[in-house]
Amino acid sequence: MAAQASEAQEAAVAPAKENGVDMGAEETRAPTGPWQKSWLARHFSLLLRRDRQAQKAGQLFSGFLALNVVLLGGAFIGSMIFNNVAITLGDVWILLATLKGLSLLWLLYYEASTTRRPHAVLCRDPHAGPIWVRGSLVLFGCCTICLNAFRVGYDVSHSHCRLQLELIFPVIEIIFVGVQTWVLWKHCKDCVQVQTNFTRCGLMLTLATNLLLWVLAVTNDSMHREIEAELGALMQNFSGNETAACLCLNATACGVFRKGFLLLYPFGTEYCLVCCAMLFVMWKNVGRHLASHAAPHPGAPPFRLHGVVFGPLLGLLALVAGVCVFVLFQIATGGPAVGHQYFTLYYAFYVATLPAMGLACLVGTAVHGLEERELDTLKNPTRSLDVVLLMGTALGQVGIAYFSVVAIVATQPHEPLGRLILAYSLLLILQHIAQNLFIIEGLHRRPLWEAAPQDPGGKREAEPARTGSLLELGQGLQRASLAYIHSYSHLNWKRRVLKEISLFLILCNITLWIMPAFGTHPEFENGLEKDFYGYRTWFTIVNFGLPLGVFYRMHSVGGLVEVYLGA
User: CB–CB of 549/513 below 8 Å?
Assistant: First the structure.
């Protein structure tokens, strides 16, 4: 039987051998998928797989580098908080100055060498670094530089009882902030293709440095305690009691430095958060290849009102009322004590504004559900980061609100101001949830000016770039432009409602951004939660939550602008 089978196999293979070529072997190979490719195609696909593996390994290594730097710095800061004898604030400053120096060297190298190499930046991410993010980067960067300048002035005015070495640290930060702002403004959209691992490590080191600066800013209350101690000593001197405190030589100059430092302090923490977000997007874009058809699109339309009326009017009404409350509260804080009526006015404004914002968000989310628009499922690191930032930064004000709820319920649930703060806290939590739902739902809707993807799997970016005909490209752009013009000239009721709601929420969030960003902090000044939790604990909670809350309002404005343009 074995001999017969062997003869049958030879008889089947023999006709396939012609001119010394084993045709049977080729026929048996042909049906298998991978062997249909040429050697060059197989080798190229292997290189692509290796490139993806190397990219993942580089991301993993740079991520571990940032994690270890953050843990080391966090250990220093935590040790300073719990044992400020063994680890002092000066030790933390030395560590951060070293990290800022290393990050500064990498930023200069990236600008002078990496980006100037051939084929260094073949493409730029159109979604990264929108103008409102870069504008906030410059604004907060300038405020941070001014903040450190006020700190230098304050230290110089106390030079008779201070170490001269302390002046070095704010000067280093001024240089670091200036260079970092300049580099991020120019290169936040870069998709770097050379020195990828070194660039990833540099980006993660700089991100970790900014994160540690933020952690120190929200936990270190030494400057605030020193200012309060000096003001208390001045009051005792006026009353005739001499003190041994380190007092300023020029009272007028010190008053300016103190006021400037306290006013600009939240902007320094905001700057660190903005830099962390931009550095993370740059890190995700290292080695990224954009498809050829991903870049040429008509672009986002210009910001126009398109006939909306009620949203801007209601938003302007909230803005004017908020500015009036802000001015009155600032005048009150300039005195020796803030009156009870000013806290009532502040929280009453929020209790009136937050329900309107929450209701508008719920209506907008319902209208999104009624729209028959395709979801945008393409990979977009910027949008993914936007969603994470919306959810993460919302925890700042929400966390403060929950702590306030516990403190009010446990101590003063029946007093009028306590009830007002309780209502404010609960409404703030609900408004954050509703607004996040509305913005995230809007960001994942495909804008009308963008064409739908051709592939059903939503993986256009993973495909190799294809050279297309200029004629076809021009026709596609013309069709998209005509569709955009037609759609905006015929606004249906759903799109009009979305635009009205978006504009109303934009103006309301600007109002709620102005008040805490420029020094209105009744959460700390009303004294209720501070007495319940203690000074240091409540200082850390407020300094952790308020910068996140300010960043959330600013970030929400950017997201709402995109929702408005895409409606």
Answer: no
Chain mean position to CA 368? 25
Pure H helices in 188-309:
196-219, 222-238, 251-285
**Is pLDDT of 354 > 60?**
yes
Band (213; pLDDT cuts 50, 70, 90): very high
One-letter identity of residue 506: I
Rounded distance between C-alpha atoms, residue 272 and residue 293, angstroms: 35
Q: Which residue has the higher pLDDT, 226 or 68?
A: 68
Nearest Cα residue to 286 out of 194, 222, 370, 214: 194
Instruction: For residue 81, give the nearest of 216, 262, 253 by alpha carbon.
Output: 216
Q: Is 165 exposed, middle or buried (0-12, 13-18, 19+ CB in 10 A)?
A: exposed
The winner for highest mean pLDDT among 200-209, 223-232, 491-500, 529-538 is 200-209
Domain ranges of the chain: 54-285, 310-449+492-566
Range from 12-26, 254-268, 542-556 carrying the lowest mean pLDDT: 12-26
Tell me if 480 sits within 8 A of 342, measured CB to CB: no
Q: What share of the chain is helix, strand, coil (3-state, %, to 5)?
A: 75, 0, 20
* Predicted TM-score of the model (pTM): 0.68
At what angle are helices 416-443 and 493-517 packed, to 10 degrees? 130
Compute the Cα dihedral for 252, 258, 261, 265 and give only its sign: negative
Burial of 152 from C-beta contacts in 10 A (0-12 / 13-18 / 19+) = middle
The per-residue b/e assignment along 310-325, b for 16 or more CB within 10 angstroms, e otherwise, is ebbebbeebbeebeeb
Q: Which residue has the tokens 């949008």?
A: 383
Give residue-wise pLDDT tens across range 103-121. Answer: 999 999 998 988 888 888 8
